[in-house]
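testing teh design pipeline on a random one, pls ignore if ur not involved
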């Protein structure tokens, strides 16, 4: 039996096994009895599921595990991680710099009070009740700086955001107050955003002088949507930083308790952030847990005791800490920072406090939580409690901070300038957003020799690598394409565009479900050795330029958010996200609406992200047909993106190159590009391109009909995308030399001028039809009609396509086929009609 000399000199018997057994119970269940709610109202102690033998060991363990810090870590299988955490928990907390903590608490509280005094009745989403967030972040950053972090990307929602902007990010209070004075002319003109969504950049200075560049990510109202964006931005910064990027760039995401439990995108992020292609070396997640979500109680938001339980399905430690024990909060902050650094793992810190006011300051919370707010009314501010605890009179400091903030407030009322809270990093200096100008349309052809050289590079595999016979055959065909003896398909056009960009120094990052091979077996950018299943990416070896192609997890929202974030910090990189079928992109609608299409208008933040959305009606049913062209078109305004649908591989090739290049130079403009990509056309012989289509020219926004011109033309059929080939075939079948086919390859910005030039080649009285395979309320029809208003004013534009429909496409292949046939027939008939939808067709037959 072991013995131990205690502090008081007594010799106690130690029974290690017995002690371990008791401690294990507390390690596992101690969090159920920790004292976490500062108001003592919620989270009452719960009995352990295992009987606890009371005694000396239990008393000791209780001290570590049932105080104001609770830890959940026994679900982590890795013993090293568990033991490290155990060690941290089973010791006394370190000395804290209490004066610094007190200053932070005073600044946090007084900041809110100063706003409250002047801007009564304005929403600010006060941090009061959880002001400990400010010293907490200070400690996370100070500890991280010591561990080598020099950049942090911070995501957070409304709660306490203005406070963090000032007291953590370091924006001057005058800039924040100016936002309350509403001096931002853009917010009057319709652009811009509300103050508690704006991004901000700044610098943290640790007590030892080390600095961390801080980036608070612009955030839409949609809770948690910013999480993947912050992770993507972090990954891009880490990549830029190089080998030690994960140690230098720290992602911190701050959540509300209700949003943490409720929003699926965050659950997706927890998995995503740990996957190879998205790994950010761990994120520090902070729950600003006021035990309320708007008016909802915890039991209305969480399925279990803590909102953090969602994170427990993964091997991530979770700390809960009573927000009114600042020393404990600081201790957890340091542990969290070190854990993330040491194990490159996520860590969750649940700061449990309260909310002093209503959801916003204009809300009366006594209507829904009368008892809680009766307690809150008389509950002193944390800085007062803490000052008393450490035996300091805070009044002089409070007055000094108040005077400083009030001075800033006076400044703010005088300023006419729009506060610029965030600066784009230096690596954006060669790039810009704004208007798409004609000079951005440039020649993107490649010399013949270059195409051949790139084909050789992209089909080369290392000695001894066993390529699948089918892929081997495809590679032989690709070499023939490059030699000009076989027509180019989309797969090869894409590969050649990628290789050409890489060899010119443009990195590429492409992700999506099954993107390495390609959902439609068309890409084969990553090869699998048939004997060893090792992978090889020829594109990664065509030059020294980085090429990343990953199969993503089965998520649209988080993955697209991540890639958008990546594009925000990698303007030099061609970043592409691919939907498996374009239909699924609507699972990421928040990212599309709130970031991709509107970020430049709201936050002045450009992005060159490319979305590849397979689209086309091919009889695969309602959910594998439509990438919802109509929705993207409805979102177009102010030059916010480019929307294209390429009918040939060469067009796709030029489009991808155009996205990155302008003239001899890299293209300066960064604009999201939405490409409706083909499925059936991928290998359709009539859609194939010749070598010379890639070696000269540029992307054509409109493709006229070079064979069908002049006065014999009676009808002009306008279309976009694959339906063109249905019309082409029908025209051949009917021998109709009097019908011209015009393809609109870029839908936004709408190429009106070019279309007009093309239409001028036809008689003015030629009939004009828009033909589409999508139902009348979908596709580009409504949009095109409006864009062509100046033409339509003078001559009629009529519609041929499927009739109005609730669901994009018919379920039965036969019905699809009949409809498709009918619509191409109608396009050539004397008096075309809209083609009926599936259900109506069936009903009519009865
Ligand atoms: C996706 C989404 N749904 C609903 C809302 C409206 N909303 C804003 S704040 C809020 C409550 C958030 O509660 P919690 O996450 O606990 O944060 P708290 O405001 O308490 O800090 C709600 C429902 C929103 N902004 N985003």
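output:
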């Amino acid at each position: 039996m072991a013995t131990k000399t205690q502090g008081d000199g007594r010799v106690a018997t130690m029974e290690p096994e017995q002690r371990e057994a008791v401690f294990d119970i507390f390690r596992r269940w101690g969090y159920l009895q920790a004292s976490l709610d500062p108001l003592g109202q919620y989270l009452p102690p719960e009995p352990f599921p295992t009987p606890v033998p009371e005694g000396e060991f239990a008393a000791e363990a209780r001290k570590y595990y049932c105080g104001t810090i609770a830890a959940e870590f026994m679900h982590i299988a890795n013993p090293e991680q568990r033991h490290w955490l155990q060690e941290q928990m089973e010791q006394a907390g370190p000395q804290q710099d209490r004066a610094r903590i007190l200053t932070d608490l005073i600044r946090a509280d007084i900041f809110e009070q100063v706003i409250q005094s002047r801007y009564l009745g304005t929403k600010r989403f006060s941090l009061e009740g959880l002001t400990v967030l400010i010293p907490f972040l200070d400690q996370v950053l100070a500890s991280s700086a010591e561990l080598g972090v020099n950049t942090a990307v911070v995501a957070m929602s409304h709660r306490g955001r203005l406070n963090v902007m000032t007291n953590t990010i370091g924006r001057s209070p005058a800039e924040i107050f100016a936002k309350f004075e509403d001096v931002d002319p853009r917010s009057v003109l319709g652009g811009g955003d509300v103050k508690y969504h704006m991004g901000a950049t700044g610098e943290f200075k640790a007590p030892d002088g080390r600095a961390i560049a801080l980036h608070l990510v612009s955030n839409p109202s949609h809770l948690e949507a910013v999480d993947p964006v912050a992770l993507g931005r972090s990954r891009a910064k880490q990549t830029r930083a190089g080998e030690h990027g994960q140690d230098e760039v720290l992602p911190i995401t701050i959540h509300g308790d209700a949003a943490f439990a409720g929003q699926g995108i965050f659950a997706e992020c927890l998995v995503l952030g740990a996957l190879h292609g998205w790994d950010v070396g761990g994120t520090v997640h902070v729950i600003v847990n006021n035990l309320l979500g708007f008016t909802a109680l915890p039991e209305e938001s969480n399925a279990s005791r803590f909102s953090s339980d969602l994170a427990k399905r993964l091997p991530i430690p979770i700390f809960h800490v009573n927000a009114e024990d600042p020393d404990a909060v600081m201790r957890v902050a340091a542990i969290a920072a070190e854990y993330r650094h040491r194990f490159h793992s996520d860590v969750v810190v649940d700061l449990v406090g309260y909310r002093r006011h209503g959801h916003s300051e204009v809300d009366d919370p006594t209507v829904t939580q009368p008892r809680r707010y009766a307690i809150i009314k008389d509950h002193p501010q944390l800085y007062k409690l803490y000052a008393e605890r450490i035996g300091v009179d805070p009044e002089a400091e409070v007055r000094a901070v108040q005077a400083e903030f009030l001075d800033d407030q006076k400044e703010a009322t005088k300023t006419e300038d729009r506060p610029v809270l965030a600066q784009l990093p230096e690596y954006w200096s060669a790039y810009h957003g704004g208007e798409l100008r004609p000079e951005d349309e440039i020649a993107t052809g490649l010399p013949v020799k270059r195409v051949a050289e790139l084909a050789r590079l992209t089909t080369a595999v290392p000695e001894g690598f066993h390529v699948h016979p089918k892929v081997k055959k495809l590679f032989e065909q690709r070499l023939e394409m490059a030699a000009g003896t076989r027509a180019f398909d989309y797969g090869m056009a894409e590969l050649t565009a990628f290789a050409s960009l890489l060899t010119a120094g443009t990195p590429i990052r492409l992700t999506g479900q099954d993107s390495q091979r390609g959902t439609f077996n068309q890409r084969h950018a990553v090869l699998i050795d048939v004997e060893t299943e090792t992978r090889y990416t020829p594109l990664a070896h065509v030059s020294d330029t980085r090429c990343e192609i990953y199969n993503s997890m089965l998520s649209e929202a988080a993955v697209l958010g991540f890639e958008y974030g990546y594009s925000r910090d990698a303007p030099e990189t061609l970043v592409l996200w691919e939907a498996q079928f374009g239909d699924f992109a609507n699972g990421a609608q928040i990212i599309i609406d709130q970031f991709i299409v509107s970020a430049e208008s709201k936050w002045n933040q450009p992005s060159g992200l490319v979305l590849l959305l397979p689209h086309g009606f091919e009889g695969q049913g309602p959910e594998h047909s439509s990438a919802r062209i109509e929705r993207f078109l409805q979102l177009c305004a102010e030059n916010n993106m480019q929307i294209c649908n390429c009918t040939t591989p060469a067009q796709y090739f030029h489009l991808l190159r155009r996205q990155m290049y302008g003239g001899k130079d890299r293209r300066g403009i960064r604009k999201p590009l939405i490409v409706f990509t083909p499925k059936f056309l991928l290998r359709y012989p009539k859609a194939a391109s010749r070598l010379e289509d890639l070696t000269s020219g540029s992307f054509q926004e409109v493709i006229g009909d070079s064979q069908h011109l002049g006065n014999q033309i009676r009808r002009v059929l306008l279309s976009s995308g694959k339906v063109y080939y249905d019309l082409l075939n029908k025209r051949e079948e009917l021998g109709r030399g009097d019908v011209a086919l015009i393809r609109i390859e870029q839908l936004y910005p709408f190429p009106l001028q070019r279309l007009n030039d093309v239409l001028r080649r036809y008689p003015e009285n030629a009939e004009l039809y828009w033909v589409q395979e999508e139902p009348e309320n979908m596709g580009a029809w409504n949009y095109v009609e409006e864009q062509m208003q100046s033409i339509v004013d003078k001559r009629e534009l009529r519609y041929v396509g499927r009739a109005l429909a609730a669901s994009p496409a018919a379920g039965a292949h036969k019905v699809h086929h009949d409809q498709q046939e009918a619509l191409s027939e109608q396009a050539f008939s004397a008096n075309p009609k809209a083609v009926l939808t599936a259900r109506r067709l069936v009903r009519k037959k009865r």
